[in-house]
Description:
By secondary structure, this protein is an all-alpha fold. The chain contains five helices and no strands. The chain has helices at residues 2-33, 37-51, 54-72, 76-113, 120-153.
Amino acid sequence: xxxxxxxxxxxxxxxxxxxxxxxxxxxxxxxxxxxxxxxxxxxxxxxxxxxxxxxxxxxxxxxxxxxxxxxxxxxxxxxxxxxxxxxxxxxxxxxxxxxxxxxxxxxxxxxxxxxxxxxxxxxxxxxxxxxxxxxxxxxxxxxxxxxxxxxxxx
Length: 154
């Protein structure tokens, strides 16, 4: 019962991560890339609080469930699949914290200073690339979690 519950939590959390990041990649990023400097900064800063409390929490829950399943799942193949999902969730967390969150803080600092520097376009492109990478990790995590379930109970 514990393993099945952990698997349900992992699939749910990785599905939320993948779905949210795909939506951002497909709808939000293209819109942000089309905006002029000040509008881009304003919109970007207003989007962040909507994601910040939720997504890190979902990521942490997925990490815990994936860790548990890496040890408790029935069979070596299922454990390997869940460990792969865990590794991909770690990838989402690392890219988010080391790239996107740091860039978000720079964008916030620009707004507080009242001046957006001339190289803002490069940061915008770097943020979009990092978002694509964490989206790929999230999709991989979801697929690996589904595979783990199939291997554990098929």
